[in-house]
Amino acid sequence: MSFQSNFFLRILSSLVAVLSITCVTTSALADIxxxxxxxxxxxxxxxxxxxxxxxATEYRPEGEGPFPLLLINHGTPRSQADFAxxxxxxxxxxxxxxxxxxxxxxxxxxxxxASDGPWAENYFNCGNPDYIGAGLETAKDIDAALExxxxxxYVDAQHVVLVGKSAGGxxxxxxxxxxxxxxxxxxxxxxxxxxRGPDDVCYDSKLVAAFSHYASTTHVPMLWFYSENDHFFGPxxxxxxxxxxxxxxxxxxxxxxxxxxxxxxxxxxxxxxVSTWAPKVDAFLKKVGLQEHMQ
Length: 295
Hints:
Layout: H1 3-28, E1 32-43, E2 50-61, E3 67-73, H2 91-98, E4 103-107, H3 131-150, E5 155-165, H4 167-176, E6 183-189, E7 195-197, E8 200-201, H5 204-215, E9 222-227, H6 235-246, E10 252-257, H7 274-287
Parallel strand pairs: 3-4, 3-5, 5-6, 6-9, 9-10
Antiparallel strand pairs: 1-2, 2-4, 7-8
Helix pairs in contact: 3-4, 5-6
């Protein structure tokens, strides 16, 4: 066989492979509409307000709805240099929830990726961190996504679930402390702030105090996950954070899950772990009244 024939066959094989992958991907999302959206947000200023947009991805199940709404919120890299390059890293998790009958919105907050800035979640001083204020700034961005989602005609505005990872998990706790309309449950994966290195959290007692502060006004049922080998917020600290909520009478289920990889802080990202957290999440969703909405 000639060189030209071999070359042609290699090109043809590559095209077939690409087309096969494309067909699998299209088929897998045939029942979900995925679209990039912009979420309007008004930021209050000392002298004037500014109107910005947050980049987000929406996942909508097939049908007219109305569907319950679920918001996914990302963490914060230790290095601020990584903020600008952040993207939607929770596509398969969003599809997981969309296939359970939720409209899912995955938002990039101010100062991350394609969203407008500036970044507003700074807790400032590691020696005396303002965790409460930082979390409430995160909550403003999540609330903007909440208001956008609740206004859509295909969304059931009275059945909303907040989901967050790490700083996003901390942010959904901050917003839940305000008991926003329609929010029936909050799920946090490895929620917290202040990790500046492996097993090194800035003034962890202040973090516990911030959790206690949020808990004092929270009436939303919650489900939390932390991994046994989380090197951002380890299980011992996780139990202290959980006790801060449970001592205030918050309906909280705290799950310490098995170790994952070198650092269990990435537990939510690992596809194999879905078999660990999905049954607990499904049970929680049924508990908060979403069984009839789930597909």
